[in-house]
């Protein structure tokens, strides 16, 4: 266990981090924010090119997001990508409750074997398509699904389950054992509400945050560290944030302004509101930070909130030259963040720019290997 910022406890002892990119399965790609183009449409071909390029460039992980209306199924996509990649993990976003838990356990284990252990799961607790549920119900269901997955992965023989949401009697847990040992694939989780933080502290491995000011991030990390300690656990922390890196600070700022130069603010709001998480506490907190920013939309040094004008979820970007972007990342690392999920627009272009200017200067590793999940790992 490592101690970093006072009150924050993490599992990773050194400053090596996992750097992930993002594949736009949910139609989240563009040259100009809010202006859709056919060449950036979510497709197997386009999104697959992002995964393969991130793998070749040396990223350790890639997030495959989940939405209902736009885009593709993240699990099926990951299965197709597994034999096409060599080193990169795939972080599959899965909405808990969409798939009957015993079948979900088998599907995850199957893809884990296909990917030779290069797999992680992003636990999602948003409303199921076509339904509206209470915050309490959504997180309680996620916790029950996670317990079922672990029971199937870690045990043998029959399983009788009597829970709040699920009631079944399996005569055999079947062949649903992941390749990864020590509990199966790492579970990443994001959410700022008290119920969300409590769920991650009890069950998950990496708590993901959206970009906020450094003091607010630290406050959240301390709180979640304390919650995890009540369960005798220590978890790691990650940050989901966009990047805009150019050779000079001036060029990076120009690129940021260019990204929103064709955005109709009313249309941008409509795009945001289509998302299932558009009224979540995390999104509302980012909205409030952006509302308090100056005319340039910077909520603190290097952190620009313009992307949130037309995007729910992660709405801010680190903007600067290579040294400035690296310095900002190092500040986060000093706080105790050990995983980054990055993206930029267009995703393939910004993936290459970050890999050219910043990634080679960072000490990196895959978290599941560092924690001994993958056969042959430490």
Describe this structure in words.
By secondary structure, this protein is α/β, with parallel strands linked by helices. It has a single domain (2-242, 322-370), classed as TIM Barrel. The protein contains twelve helices and 15 strands. It has an eight-stranded parallel barrel with strand order 3-4-5-6-9-10-11-15, surrounded by seven helices. A two-stranded antiparallel ribbon has the order 1-2. A hairpin with a 2-residue loop joins β12 (298-300) and β13 (303-304). The model has no long low-confidence stretch (mean pLDDT 91).
Say which CATH homologous superfamily is assigned.
Luciferase-like domain
Order of helices and strands: EEEHEHEHEHEEEHEHEHHHEEEHEHH
Task: Please give the largest β-sheet.
Answer: 8 strands, parallel, barrel
Structural class: alpha/beta
- Unreliable runs: none
CATH class label? Alpha Beta
Summary?
With 378 residues, this protein is an alpha/beta fold. It has twelve helices and 15 strands. 38% of the residues lie in helices and 18% in strands.
């Amino acid at each position: 266990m490592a101690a970093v910022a006072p009150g924050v406890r993490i599992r990773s002892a050194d400053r090596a981090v996992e750097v992930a990119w993002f594949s736009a399965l949910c139609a989240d790609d563009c040259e100009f924010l809010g202006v859709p183009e056919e060449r950036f449409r979510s497709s197997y071909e386009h999104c697959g090119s992002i995964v393969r390029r991130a793998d070749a460039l040396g990223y350790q992980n890639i997030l495959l997001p989940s939405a209902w209306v736009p885009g593709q199924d993240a699990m099926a996509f990951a299965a197709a990508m597994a034999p096409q990649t060599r080193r990169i993990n795939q972080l599959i976003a899965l909405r808990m409750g969409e798939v009957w838990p015993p079948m979900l356990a088998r599907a995850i284990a199957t893809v884990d074997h296909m990917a030779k252990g290069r797999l992680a799961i992003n636990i999602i607790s948003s409303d199921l398509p076509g339904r509206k549920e209470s915050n309490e119900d959504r997180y309680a269901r996620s916790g029950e699904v996670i317990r079922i997955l672990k029971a199937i992965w870690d045990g043998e023989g029959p399983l009788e389950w009597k829970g709040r949401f699920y009631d079944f009697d399996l005569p055999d847990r079947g062949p649903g054992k992941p390749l990864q040992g020590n509990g199966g694939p790492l579970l990443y989780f994001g959410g700022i509400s008290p119920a969300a933080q409590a769920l991650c502290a009890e069950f998950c491995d990496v708590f993901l945050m959206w970009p906020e000011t450094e003091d607010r991030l630290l406050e959240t990390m301390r709180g979640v560290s304390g919650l995890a300690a009540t369960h005798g656990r220590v978890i790691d922390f990650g940050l989901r944030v966009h990047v805009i890196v150019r050779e000079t600070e001036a060029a990076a700022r120009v690129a940021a302004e260019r990204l929103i130069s064709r955005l109709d603010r009313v249309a941008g709001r409509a795009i945001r509101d289509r998302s299932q998480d558009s009224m979540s506490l995390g999104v509302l907190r980012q909205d409030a930070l952006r509302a308090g920013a100056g005319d340039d939309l910077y909520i603190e040094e290097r952190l620009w909130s313009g992307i949130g004008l037309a995007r729910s979820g992660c709405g801010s970007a680190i903007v600067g030259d290579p040294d400035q972007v690296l310095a900002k990342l190092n500040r986060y690392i000093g706080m105790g963040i050990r995983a980054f999920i990055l993206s930029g627009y267009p995703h393939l272009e910004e993936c290459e720019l970050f890999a050219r200017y910043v990634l080679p200067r960072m000490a990196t590793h895959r978290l599941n290997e560092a924690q001994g999940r993958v056969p042959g790992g430490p």
